[in-house]
């Protein structure tokens, strides 16, 4: 005991304290450096990897509606959206056709190019492009709202054959036979500075999140047997006034947030609506893969569509598993 006291008396505790602090700081620096480099290491070793520090916001919802089992090849899927589904419409590498190949199901494509999830106006004006927004398309098959289609076709006699045919199919398809509706809109609302959400009215259709929530509610109220699978907006570059590409995880327009915030709110709408959500923004088409998977600042390459279809299959297979659990 006396010897121990003698050793301790010779120690300078100031130096001991500083040594311990230096060791702690070293450990923290090493850990932060490793964490910061993780994404760069993953990107350099495997540029197609989706295993980044930010986890995808996927939310797979089990199918709880009591209905008879059905094999995927006997199912019907309806797709709604803009460019991700409308690009190369009718061609083999179109996203809807890729999903048809992977599932074996009958797939109908109700996507319209240059459309938005949100509406520009609170009410529909004759011939206005708002008709092709998600909410008003939804009213056609949930509320039998044929009037707006007839008004549009009368006001736009030179509308493309594809648009006329798609609207006609949407009017005539019996959605009692539809098993899955999948929805995918890109970052067009963000780039057009459309509102993200309204704090006082969560279903305000002039806002990105409000239009999605209002549309989901209409579908669930009218066709509760349909499983809805929402694919998030994929990564897209923001644009400066001179056309310079900027990172959409930080670029904001007006009072709205970056595209990352739109995707976050999109996931929240699906979560509270008990709707399956597949996150492609932090999944297949992310900041790390955008250079390879985007044709320009926003449109998906054929390879990107393949990857998005693979992500869709996660939600689809989960649905099939629960629907057929007693088969």
Overview of the structural elements:
With 327 residues, this protein is of the alpha/beta class. It has two domains: 2-36; 57-323, Rossmann fold, CATH 3.40.50. 44% of the residues lie in helices and 8% in strands. The chain contains twelve helices and seven strands. Helix 4 crosses helix 12 (302-323) and helix 5 packs parallel to helix 9. The longest helix has 33 residues, at 13-45. The protein is globular and about 55 Å long. The termini are far apart.
Mean pLDDT: 85
First-last Cα distance: 77 Å
Main sheet: strands, sense, barrel: 5 strands, parallel
Name given to the CATH architecture of the largest domain: 3-Layer(aba) Sandwich
Number of domains: 2
Strand order of the largest sheet: 2-1-3-4-7
Feature tags:
2 domains; 7 strands; 327 residues; globular; two-stranded antiparallel sheet; 12 helices; five-stranded parallel β-sheet; 8% strand; Rossmann fold; single chain
Task: Please provide a brief summary of the model.
It is built from 12 helices and 7 strands. With 327 residues, the chain is α/β, with parallel strands linked by helices.
Summarize the SSE layout with pairings.
Layout: H1 2-10, H2 13-45, E1 76-81, H3 83-86, H4 95-103, E2 106-109, H5 134-142, H6 146-155, H7 161-172, E3 180-184, H8 188-191, H9 208-222, E4 227-231, E5 238-239, E6 245-246, H10 259-272, E7 276-278, H11 290-293, H12 302-323
């Amino acid at each position: 005991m006396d010897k121990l006291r003698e050793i301790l008396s010779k120690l300078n505790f100031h130096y001991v304290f500083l040594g311990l602090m230096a060791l702690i700081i070293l450990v923290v620096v090493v850990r932060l450096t490793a964490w910061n480099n993780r994404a760069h290491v993953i990107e350099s070793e495997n540029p197609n990897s989706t295993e980044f520090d930010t986890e995808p916001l996927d939310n797979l919802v089990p199918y709880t509606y009591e209905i008879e089992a059905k094999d995927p090849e006997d199912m019907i899927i309806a797709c709604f959206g803009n460019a991700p589904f409308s690009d190369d419409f009718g061609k083999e590498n179109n996203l809807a056709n890729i999903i048809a190949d992977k599932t074996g199901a009958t797939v109908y494509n109700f996507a319209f190019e240059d459309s938005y999830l949100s509406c520009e106006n609170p009410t529909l004006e004759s011939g206005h492009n708002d008709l092709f927004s998600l909410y008003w398309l939804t009213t056609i098959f949930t509320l039998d709202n044929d009037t707006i289609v007839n008004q549009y076709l009368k006001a736009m006699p030179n509308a493309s054959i594809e648009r006329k045919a798609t609207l006609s199919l949407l009017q005539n398809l019996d959605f009692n036979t539809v098993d899955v509706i999948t929805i995918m809109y890109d970052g067009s609302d963000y780039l057009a500075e459309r509102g993200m959400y309204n704090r006082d009215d969560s279903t305000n259709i002039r806002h990105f999140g409000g239009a999605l929530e209002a549309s989901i509610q209409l579908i669930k109220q009218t066709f509760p047997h349909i499983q809805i699978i929402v694919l998030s907006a994929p990564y897209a570059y923001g644009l400066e006034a001179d056309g310079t590409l900027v990172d959409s995880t930080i670029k904001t327009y007006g009072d709205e947030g970056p595209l990352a915030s739109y995707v976050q709110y999109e996931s929240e709408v699906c979560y509270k609506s008990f709707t399956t959500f597949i996150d492609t923004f932090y999944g297949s088409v992310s900041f790390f893969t955008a250079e390879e998977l985007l044709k320009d600042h926003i449109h998906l390459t054929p390879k990107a569509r393949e990857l998005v279809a693979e992500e869709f299959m996660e939600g689809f297979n989960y649905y099939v598993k629960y629907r057929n659990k007693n088969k």
